[in-house]
Every structure is written in structure tokens, then in C-alpha cells.
Amino acid sequence: MAPEERGDSQAGQDPESIRAQLDRILASPEFLAPERGRRFLQYIVEETLEGHGEQLKAFAIAQAVFGRDDSFDAQNDPVVRIEAGRIRRALERYYLVCGSSDPIQITIPKGGYAPHFSSDEDSSNPGEAAMPNCESKRRRPGPERPLRYRDLLMPIGIPALLGAIAVLALIRPIETYLSPQITPTAPAASTLTSKTRIVVEPFAALGGTARGADFAKGLVDQLIAKLMTVDSLVVLAPGRSGMEVTGSLFNLQGSTLVEGPVLHLHVRLVNGADGAVVWANQYDRELGDQTILDVEDEIAVQIIREISSSRKLSGAGPIP
Hey, what long-range contacts does 134-138 have (CB within 8 A, 24 or more apart)? Predict the structure, then answer.
């Protein structure tokens, strides 16, 4: 069932402070969310600050953020509910990793799409928390703390540790003379060296439709997630293909075009060494009875299986 949609947000903070917190989250490298998820978060925060929190229904969000038309049905197309879950987890991770001292916490309570804004009375002052990156902050000078038991052990513990290391360093060479020499077998090529590198480049969205752009970004996310489960592959971030790497390097490229209810997708695999196209295919799908997420998952699985069976990825084993 679709979640109950409510619009009440207990926002007692200044709207500009909340917008500053939103900018801080979106600028942080620790906020792991795709572009359409960031648009989703911006939209619900702005709508709530404008007093439209009660109107944050799945239908309105799907039209404003995901480009759906009047025929959108939240029961058959759960894109809003799924994206809300992703952003909830991304916000939780951000505040756990580096946002614990931020002056304002933005959350999305389960059961609705209206964000909740709260402040932490014990957090650092706004001047420190407003730093755009999650950097460690210097403590302000304060009253001298009482001497602790571990402070007394530090002058003794460190010299003792260094002494133990020195004794072990002397004992180790003696053991080499007493114990028989074992010739180590020649190690195989390192795991990373023998692995095949693959770069999933952003797919081009032709036709200029929002639905086509969303599909292109979602399909790239699906391909990256599934390729990362393959032990014999290393998935590189886009833009890294020009770096000097060992082993094979391939670029996965593609373009999408949505014409009404029909999806056209072209995908190719390019050898990074000489630019030769080693594999290519075209996929056409009717989107009438399927959700975008289901189509993304189905095509991603098919692409990876076909790449694996083509044997063009040197060193890449069977892909599940």
C-alpha cells in the first residue's frame, strides 16, 4: 500500500537557516543521492517552507519532480515512495558521518513526504556548523580539564611500547637463522591488477523529456550497482577513464529516447585502449504496463548478462 501522506512539519526555525542547512547537505560529499533524489529533497523542503506541506502528495511530487503526467497512479508506479526511502537513508547516513553538529536536522518521517526540521541545543555554534565540508573542527579553549588516570599512563606507556617493538625487531632476525628458509611461491598477479576496469558513463537522454532523463540516470545507477557485485570487475567513477591503470579498461556508453509509451535504448561497450566498439545492442520497450524502476532493473540485468556472454571483457568471469 502507498504510505499515508501527511503535510504537518514542526518547523520552528528560520526559513533561511533551513535553506542554508539544505545547501550544506547537498554540497557534502557524504550525502549519497542521485540527481533526481536531490531534486526531490529540494522540492519537499521548499514546498514545506512555503506553507504547502499538506499538499505534498505522491501525485503532486510525481508531476513536479519526476515528470509524470495526469495518468500517474501511485499504486502502480511507486517511484515517489522508493525515492523517499532512499533520501531517508541518505539523510540518516549524512547526520551519522559528519552532520551530527549541524544546527538543524532535516528528516522525512515515515508515513508521509513532508520533511521535519529540528534543532539540537547541544550542537556547535552556527559559525562552526556552517562549514560546507565535513571537516574536523578545532575545540575552543575552555577551562582546564581535570587530570585523568590515562594521562598519567601516557608517559610510561609510549616508551614501553617502543621498547617492546625494539625487542621484537631484534628477535625476528634471530628466528630467521633458526628456522628453515621457506621459498615463497611466486604470487599471482595482484587482484586489482588482474581485474578488468569498466567505466559506466552517463547515458545521453535524447528528445529533451524529463522522463527520458530520469530513465537514463536511473539505468546508470542500476548498472553500477549490479557491476559492483562482480568480483572480477572494478567499477570506476565517470571521468576516471583517462587515468593510467593496469589491466583492461572498457567504457559502457548509451543513449535513451522516450517517445510516448515506447522506450528506445542504445548501449555500446568501448575498448579504452584503442576506442574500438567491442559490443553494442538496442533495446525497445513498451512502458505502458511497467514502472520505470522495473524496466531499469530488467534492462540492466540483460545488458550485464550479454556483456558477460560476449567474452569481450578480458579476465571477467561469469556475471550473476
Answer: 134/28, 134/29, 134/30, 134/97, 134/98, 134/99, 137/101
pLDDT digits (tens, 9 = 90+) for 126-150: 444 444 456 544 344 445 555 565 6
Instruction: Name the phi and psi angles at 273, rounded to 5.
Output: -75, -45
Bin 138: left if φ > 0, else alpha if -120 < ψ < 50, else beta.
beta
Q: How far is 62 from 84, CA to CA, in rounded Å?
A: 11
SS3 call for 15: helix
Mean pLDDT of 263-277: 85
Phi and psi dihedrals of 269, rounded to 5? Answer: -115, 120
- Strands (E) across 23-133 are located at 104-107, 116-119
Rounded to two decimals, what is the model's pTM? 0.40
pLDDT in tens, 201-234: 998 988 888 878 888 888 888 888 878 887 777 8
DSSP E strand boundaries for the chain? 104-107, 116-119, 196-200, 204-206, 233-236, 249-259, 262-271, 277-286
Contact 234, 286 (CB under 8 A): no
The three state secondary structure string of 114-129 is CCEEEECCCCCCHHHH
Distance of CA 157 to the CA centre of its chain: 42
- Pairing status of strand 277-286 against strand 262-271: antiparallel
Q: Check residue 158 and give its pLDDT.
A: 79
What angle separates helix 210-227 from helix 35-49, to the nearest 10 degrees?
Answer: 130
Rounded Cα–Cα distance for residues 65 and 292 (Å) = 14
What does the pLDDT look like over 38-49, one tens digit per residue? Answer: 999 999 999 999
Which own/partner contact pairs does 309-313 have at CB distance under 8 Å and 24+ positions apart?
310/269, 310/278, 310/279, 312/250, 312/269, 312/278, 312/279, 313/196, 313/198, 313/233, 313/248, 313/250, 313/269
